[in-house]
Structure formats: C-alpha cells, structure tokens
Amino acid sequence: MRYAETTAVDGLSLTVERGTVTAVLGPNGAGKTTTLETCEGYRRPQQGSVRVLGLDPRAQARELLPRIGVMLQEGGAWSGARAPEMLRHIASLHAHPIDPAVLEERLGLAECGRTAYRRLSGGQKQRLSLAMALIGRPEVVFVDEPTAGLDPAARRTVWELFEELRRDGVTVVLTTHYMDEAEKLADRIHIIDHGRLIASGSPLELTRGGTVSTIRLVVTKPFPPEAPASLAAALGDRIEVVLLDELSLLVTGPADASTLARVSDWCERSGVLPESLTLGTRNLEDVFLELTGRGLKESA
Ligand SMILES: Nc1ncnc2c1ncn2[C@@H]1O[C@H](COP(=O)(O)OP(=O)(O)OP(=O)(O)O)[C@@H](O)[C@H]1O
Asked: Which among 205, 238, 268 is the end of a domain?
C-alpha cells in the first residue's frame, strides 16, 4: 500500500487464526492502521490480496460487513448524535444485535446520555466506538488502539470484554502502543515496522518466557554516543548492550552480581551517574525496542 511517496505496507504477510486475539504492534507510522483498513475494506490493496473469513473485503463487502466489527482510531459517529441514539441506530442495522442497554451499562455510556458526540471526552468517544463495533455480534473485530486515552478502570473493562469475546469464539485483531496490553491479551503478536513484518509469536515466545535476565541502566543525562559500545567492551562477549532510548540501556546476558558490579564500575569510569540500576528479565517492551530501535516515548 502506497500513499504518494510513502510505502505504508510493504509485502506484509500474516494470518490470524479464528477465535484468537491478535495484537499488531509497531512504532508510529509503521503501517498498522493501513493494514487494518485494508482488511476492513476501506482501502483496496494496490498489490497482493487480503481475505477475511474467506471473503474479499471489497468485492464481497455485502457478505462480509455484517460479520465484522470495526473500531476506527477516531470518528465513526455523527457529531450531533448522542451515544444512546448512535448505538441504537447501529443496532437497528444488524440482524441480531446485542441489547444496546447491556453495552451502555458495561462501557459506562449511560453517563453521557444527553451529550452530543462532538462534546464527549476522548475516553467516552472511545467507549462508544467500541460499543458500536461490538453491537452486531461480529465474528471478527478490528480495533485500532481501543484503549488509547482510557482511564485505568475503563481499560480493565475493555480487557475483560476482549477476554469474553475470545471465550465466545470471536476473533479480535487489535493495534496498541501498550505493551502490557498486548502481553496480557494477545495469543499472538505481530510486530511491524516500515510496513514489514519483523517478528511474530506468542508473548511467551517473543520474550522467551521471561527467562532472559537483564540489567536496566537508567540515567538522568543522555548517554554519550559511544556509551553502548564502550559498555559492551567492558562487559565482554557473552553480554549484549542495547540502547533503549537516550536515557536507558539494557544489558542482556548473565545478569548476575559480577555483571552488575562491572556495569557500576563502568559508570564510575565513564562519569555516568545512574538514576537506577535494576536486575530483571526481558519483557515485551524490551523486545519491541530492540527490534524497532525506537523508544516507546517516541512511538506512543
Ligand atoms: N491517507 C494518507 N495519505 C498519505 N499518507 C498516509 C495516509 N495514511 C497513512 N499515511 C502514511 O502511511 C504510513 C503508515 O501510516 P499508518 O497510519 O498505517 O501507521 P500506524 O502504524 O497505524 O501509525 P500510528 O501508530 O501512528 O497510528 C505513515 O507514514 C503515514 O504518514
């Protein structure tokens, strides 16, 4: 998929199994939304093909649309409509919708009953959008950053909803910038960057089950450019040093007391003042940063 000079999706090939939750991760501009929009039938692939439930999302849209639910990154409701009106309208377009009152209750939409869509808070819009995607009892739901901007309680509710959908055999494809969300919800994660697939696996496979020990060094002033190479040289062959962002480094390998002492020595010799030096295991965020080479702060 190209937009003028930009190649947004570039030979991406992936399959999602029915009844699973799949998370598509990637830095800003990686091509996640374009990929989802192609699956939803909003965009026609310029090359390659896409099938959803065995159907072509554009040529067979009439058959496919009643069977999928879509939550866009933004928009999707009339600006003057109130949440209950919007939800009832979408329900009326489906053959066997969920009772709108049930979703209103679950997603806390009753509180915005009298407010026009354009005046809803960001989190209320998100919750309405999700309710609209689910109301038709879809077999597959595509949700683009479903919990962006939600408060912690609303986020938890959305997670519970996705877990219920999976139990009911619904296929969920979501994008997110929250690594804990992907780790908790997804059966399978696909990491994409520059429109290409760079890693796939279950959260356990990608993090190797949390068995890779690490030392995380966080500083208050940006590292000098030579810091990763200099620290790697000080620690020897079996240890890998990755710059996660300008203020944090991840040391992977036998992260024991001796390595910790050598990192600390290196800090002293290099005039680096650690804000924290923590032993742990490699999590999904570390894997993401290592693979994409871009800090989450930049990406989120
Ligand atoms: N309608 C458009 N016209 C021109 N360029 C576009 C358009 N939509 C997306 N792009 C470009 O295509 C690339 C992929 O964008 P896309 O929205 O698919 O990324 P994303 O991974 O969803 O990003 P984000 O995490 O920021 O939502 C980006 O470089 C973006 O600027």
From this structure: 205
